[in-house]
């Protein structure tokens, strides 16, 4: 076959398309693989290394920590920076050592040149202490103190005693958090309701002496409840600060650590593969289910997961009826002419508007105009503190609903256009009205296309960050938008988002090296959340498609 005939046959374009698809898949799966390796590797309990090291000034120091990574650095570059080297190799291996002990050393990480390491070992009794503040602590357990007095515990029983007391402290901490969030939170909510009720009476000139007495009596009840809860809380706080440990670090210094500041203790060098695997999955579960600590560089991301999923669900509830109604009007009711074509062009152009523009619009219209007027009409007793006149999850969902509205409109119109005209005519011939035909026949048959638009909308909205920074997302939200306090769903609250969490940890973190693995881990989690939401929508679409396939044929 001649080359010209081969090109005319179309085979080169088939192979070209196949190569492009293959290259795209390789890049996508390669990127996901990189994110998985960098992100999931963060949770593995690495061995702790103890080394004697000659630093850049030629002084011998003893260091302890986890090796986080290595790279080859040009020897001439190191010499230009004044680093003293003991190797003549052109490229020098440099380790990134997580030394922790930030309150002692002032930094979590240190760059170590491999040729300058004199001795390297993995001591069995090396201890890792994960703290609520100041990051990890590495050292050797010296003793345990109770109310400042050292316990007379043998060296063999010291570790089991520490585990027992750590479990006790964690249990007390959970009780304290539960009291603070549920009991005290509920009391504060009731007190705020009383304050707003009094303000409402004042605005309406209805604050009589009888109502003042009623409010005072109700406040006394809440004050009595608060005093009882506060006493329980004080008792728990006294119990939780009872124990402390003394840890000796690599250079011989000792540090006393209060156990109420400890999240977890373990000895990685003594752990078997099975123990490390169990700890690995426990760390992943903590990351998924816990709240963030240390400016989002430690702890978990549960509030961000919750906020992301809830915002997407609210957005889907808002955008679906709006998009379907608009598409139905344009396809079924509007007269096809210049105005309709202009509207379609405008809808298509809206899909290309930068997302930050939607954020500015949401801030100006939803938050300041709409939310401000809602506060004036329904929440005037709370002013000047805004209720809905401030960024929140409702305004974020509405902003993203507008952003994704063109996608739903276009997909729904495509679905409506594929319904054969004979089905419409048959329904009308049987005596159904146009609305009944639309409601009972056309919309159900086009529901797979509607779900396709919703899938695309969810995929885009879940990853958006720029508009959310203006209309509701925050670095740390103390309360979830959904809780056990009436009215249970708080659409006025600010929320956390996985996309913004990635931005905050990656670009605003004071500890860049410690935050880098969390960026990968959170990115992977965001991808998984989007995939999970899409899978649910795809399953619904497939069932609808199978249900109405017979009608389409």
CATH topology of the domain at 314-495: MetI-like fold
Global outline = flat
Rg, please? 31 Å
Termini separation (Å)? 41 Å
Mean pLDDT: 86
Number of helices: 17
Helix content range? 55-70%
**Elements, N to C (H/E):** HHEEHEHEEEEEHHEEEHEEHHHHHHHHHH
Q: Unreliable runs, pLDDT <50, ≥5 residues? A: none
CATH-level-4 superfamily name of the domain at 314-495: MetI-like
Q: Report the CATH C-level class of the domain at 314-495.
A: Mainly Alpha
Helix/sheet category:
alpha+beta
Number of strands: 13
How is the biggest beta sheet arranged?
6 strands, antiparallel
How much of the sequence lies in strands comes to 5-15%
* Name given to the CATH architecture of the domain at 314-495: Orthogonal Bundle
Question: Would you mind describing this structure in some detail?
Answer:
It is a single chain. This protein is α+β, with helices and mostly antiparallel strands and about 550 residues long. Among the domains are: about 50-125; about 315-495, MetI-like fold (Orthogonal Bundle). Helices cover about 60% and strands about 15% of the residues. It has 17 helices and 13 strands. The strands form 3 sheets. Strands 6, 7, 8, 9, 10 and 11 form a 6-stranded antiparallel β-sheet that branches. The protein has a 5-stranded antiparallel β-sheet with strand order 4-3-2-1-5. A hairpin with a 5-residue loop joins β9 (about 245-250) and β10 (about 255-260). The longest helix is centred in the first third of the chain and has 49 residues, at about 155-205. The radius of gyration is 31 Å and the shape is flat. It starts with a helix and ends with a helix. The mean pLDDT is about 85.
